[in-house]
Amino acid sequence: MRERIAEILDNAKIIACFWHKNPDGDAVGAALAVKNFYGDKVRVYSRDRVPEIFRFLSGSEEVIVYKDFSEVEPADVFLVVDCGDERRVPGFDGSKAGTVVVIDHHDTNTGFGDVNFVDPESSSTCELVYQVLKATGRPIDAKVAECLYTGVYTDTGGFKYADTKPETFQAAKELVELGAEPWKVAVEIYESNPLRRIKLLGECLGTLQLHLDGKVASLFVTLDMYERTGSLPEDTEDFVNYARGIKGVEVGIFIRERHEGGVKVSLRSKGRVNVAKVAAQLGGGGHVNAAGCELDSTVEETLNRLISLLEKEVR
After folding, report:
1. SS3 state of residue 256
2. Of 115, 212, 265, 301, which residue is least crowded by CB atoms under 10 Å?
3. Is residue 90's pLDDT more than 90?
4. What is the dihedral of CA 57, 175, 188, 119, to 10 degrees?
5. From residue 94, how far is each of 37, 77, 97, 207 by CA, in Å?
6. Interatomic CA distance for residues 288 and 23, integer angstroms
7. 3-state helix, strand, coil in the chain (%, to 5)
8. What is the largest CA-CA distance in the chain?
9. Separation of alpha carbons 37 and 144, rounded Å
10. The pLDDT of residue 315
């Protein structure tokens, strides 16, 4: 499959690349790696702007933000990265492409591409993209390596999560040898927080609650909190890990109100509870230890529903 996708990308005259809404480091890193590798024949489209913490990556300034999918031009290949379901690419219309290629590592991937390279055992989509780019036989430069390393680093939580395997460290080693700088990536992502994010985190931590005999912890952010702190939804990245990081907690819940209505939920498990199973019951998906969903309900209603679903799983 690596060789087949490498051949498809090599032969394409125009590649349009997409990631899921509210992109994380793995999604941004994967798409920008392809952009930097193939140059001008790649256009990266996004419904959301690139989060500020990932704008140090080369090519981020060239991402095309669209309001409606009609703004997306046809291409030989639509490459969708780090996305388990086409619904997570707002308005996605694969009929505008000759071939739809999907590269992803989510357990719940629906196989919506014409060609799918999906490996739930992989640490990240960037690790899979790296395999594809290596299969072309062409050199990988430092800009590409930095994008790929960023995705591997962030999706493993700095090499802390359970999906970090020997192959992950081998890929990271090779990417560093190709020019990625671990200290730079770490500083840009974890030590360059805008002040507004820290203010928002302070308010968010004030909502901390424990449930089910301390086995579940929850946090939330409301629209009022954004307004008071001048912060943005992208500033909530990794807030859920403050809930999961409490001793004795098996599952962390983070809920944030959306400006367009409803809420977005992030779930994180320490390994005993399959949160992808819980998210799937609410129309979402993800991994065993990291999943999420979106609901048209209030924070309180959402939390009550989640606790009800988690009670059976936790006990």
Report:
1. strand
2. 301
3. yes
4. 80
5. 23, 9, 6, 42
6. 19
7. 45, 20, 35
8. 57
9. 6
10. 82
Report the C-alpha gap between 169 and 152 in whole angstroms: 9
| CA–CA gap between residue 154 and residue 126 (Å, rounded) | 10
Strand partners of residue 286: 291
Domains, the chain, with CATH or none: 2-190 (3.90.1640.10), 195-314 (3.10.310.30)
Average pLDDT over residues 168-196: 96
Counting Cα atoms < 13 Å in the Cβ hemisphere of 154 gives 26
Question: How many CA atoms does the CB half-sphere of 280 hold within 13 Å?
Answer: 14
Q: Which structure tokens are listed for 218?
A: 């929850």
Q: How does DSSP classify residue 234?
A: G
Report the share of the chain in percent with pLDDT over 90: 93
> How far, in Å, CA of 38 to CA of 132, rounded?
13
C-alpha distances (whole Å) from 120 to each of 168, 219, 258 are: 13, 28, 29
Query: What token pair was written down for 11?
Result: 């032969």
Q: Which amino acid is at 36?
A: N
Q: Is the pLDDT of residue 264 over 90?
A: yes
Q: What is the mean pLDDT of residues 163-183?
A: 97
Encode pLDDT of 42-86 as tens digits.
Answer: 999 999 999 999 999 999 999 999 999 999 999 999 999 999 999
Q: Cα separation of 126 and 23, whole Å? A: 13
Work out the average pLDDT over 277-293.
Answer: 91
Q: Tell me the pLDDT band of 107, cut-offs 50, 70 and 90.
A: confident
The residue with tokens 């990536």 is 185
Spatial distance between the Cα atoms of 302 and 113, rounded to a whole number of angstroms: 32
